[in-house]
Amino acid sequence: MAKQSTVLIPLQKRWPMIIIVLFSLSTAIVFLIRASFDSCNTRSYEDNSDNQIHVTTQVGSLANPLIFMKSKLVLLVSHELSLSGGPLLLMELAFLLRGVGAEVVWITNQKPTEPDVVTYSLEHKMLDRGVQVFSAKGQKAIDTALKADLVILNTAVAGKWLDAVLKENVPRVLPKVLWWIHEMRGHYFKVEYVKHLPFVAGAMIDSHTTAEYWKNRTHERLGIKMPKTYVVHLGNSKELMEVAENSAAKRVLREHVRESIGVRNEDLIFAIINSVSRGKGQDLFLRSFYESLQLILEKKLQVPSMHAVIVGSDMNAQTKFEIELRNFVVEKKIQDRVHFVNKTLNVAPYLASIDVLVQNSQARGECFGRITIEAMAFQLPVLGTAAGGTMEIVVNGTTGLLHPVGKEGVISLAKNIVKLATHVERRLTMGKKGYERVKERFLEHHMSDRIALVLKDVLQKSKSHANS
Q: CA-CA distance, 11 to 224, in Å (whole number)?
């Protein structure tokens, strides 16, 4: 079997030591919640129809631009509560709103029937921060939706909650709904999910590519029109940036994680940090990694020992896909070079410990890919698929290298792995350029201004509708 990392247990045992070291360096570091949310692109464009896609412009201000949300009642509706990107992003928005004094209520439409450790942990994390957690069904949810100043639906699937719970009250709530969409997969385009989409106050989408895809797909497949759509890129929190910019903190984390998984300091680590699933492309990454090892042998190249790390494993689920990954590793006899790490909120230790991030999402790619900008903050080059939001983040040849999706991308990615393994200076230069791009575009203050403009616009539209 491929090596299953035991890094989580040592990290927990030595966390107090690490925290003491980090605080002794006057660094405020938070690993459990990556509270960020940034937009980063000042472009805006529109098509020739009335349906426009907007990117808000930055407004410089010293005060928190979300302060106008103080005392506002905001209902957040998530389709699930898990460690996946959508729910975590909505939680971060909840904390930002709580930070300015908004009253925030969270409901999860689809909850496990059996007790679930992750759900329990995340709910209590929100309760500790003053976010109220209600049942998705029942009169309390209906009353909150009717009283709320703003309702935010998270992901397309959350649309099922409207008819199932609000029923005849749906028309009263739609004018104050901001629908936050992250999905790029075709199976989300179902009438039962998105039939109310044209009537909400606005849609917020994480990348231009995804916004265009939704506009075209809803029109062609469902015959419906998108509402006013805002493109808002994500970004890195101040806490994560403080870790990324602290060389001593990174050194502590790097040494600890590498020791835990049995990798030497001089070895090279190429890592994917995503939930393990076929859409994230861990299978193709492992094939590329194996091919890169063969290329190095064939060309007799002198490179440090190379390792592949997959952060996002969950063997408790015993998925067919993860078993396939582990069987491939055994078949190719690369168990000593491949390490599986359980899924976690704490990405900073792994970003500090690796040398290159691989973003290998398939099909239409990532809607945005938060981990990509987080890796760039740690001065890591990115090897990404030429699809989706990754193309709006990675500058090919400057901050990383792009390769095609699918099987045709396997050899291309393998060659890119070899390029970065054999050219230390190029790898380091790309990492520095990526960090500069993050500082220019992907920081919390960029997003704070822009998300504020989106919420102001939606609130104004809701108010105008109520008055009329």
A: 50
| Residue 442 scores a pLDDT above 80 | yes
Q: Is 380 helix (H, G, I), strand (E, B) or coil?
A: coil
pLDDT by residue (tens digit) across 199-255?
Answer: 999 999 999 999 999 999 888 888 999 999 999 988 888 889 999 999 999 999 999
Q: Give me 188's structure tokens.
A: 């989300």
Number of Cβ atoms within 10 Å of the Cβ of 328: 17
> Would you state the structure tokens that stand for residue 203, as one six-digit string?
């849609």
Sheet holding 202-205, edge to edge: 45-46, 52-54, 229-231, 202-205, 177-181, 150-154, 73-78, 103-108, 132-134
For residue 37, being part of any structural domain is answered with no
DSSP state of 56: P
Task: Provide the residue range defining the domain that includes 263.
Answer: 3-29+237-442
Asked if 206 and 68 sit in the same domain, the reply is yes
- One domain, residues 133 and 152: yes
Is 109:80 a contact under the CB 8 Å cutoff? yes
For strand 400-403 and strand 382-385, is the pairing parallel, antiparallel, or unpaired?
A: parallel
Q: How confident is the model at residue 182 (pLDDT cuts 50, 70, 90)?
A: confident
Q: Is residue 49 part of a domain?
A: yes
Q: How far is CA 33 from the centre of its chain?
A: 12
Question: Which CATH number does the domain housing residue 411 bear?
Answer: 3.40.50.2000
Does residue 115 or residue 310 have the better pLDDT? Answer: 310
| pLDDT above 90 coverage of the chain, percent | 68
E strand or H helix at 310: strand 306-313
Backbone angles phi, psi at 330, to 5 degrees: -70, -45
Identify whether residues 352 and 452 lie together within a single domain. no
CA distance 434 to 426: 12
The answer for 35, left when phi > 0, alpha when psi is -120 to 50, beta otherwise, is beta
Maximum C-alpha span of the chain: 75
Which neighbouring-strand residues pair with 175?
A: none
Statement to judge: residues 117 and 188 lie in one domain:
yes
Domain check: are 81 and 228 in the same one? yes
Task: Give the total number of structural domains in the chain.
Answer: 2
CB 388 within 8 A of CB 364: yes
Asked if the structure places residue 87 within a domain, the reply is: yes
Which region holds residue 91: left if phi is over 0, alpha if psi is between -120 and 50, else beta? alpha
CB neighbours (10 Å) of residue 76?
26
pLDDT tens for each residue of 392-437: 999 999 999 999 999 999 999 999 999 999 999 999 999 999 999 9
Q: How many CB atoms lie within 10 A of CB 259?
A: 15
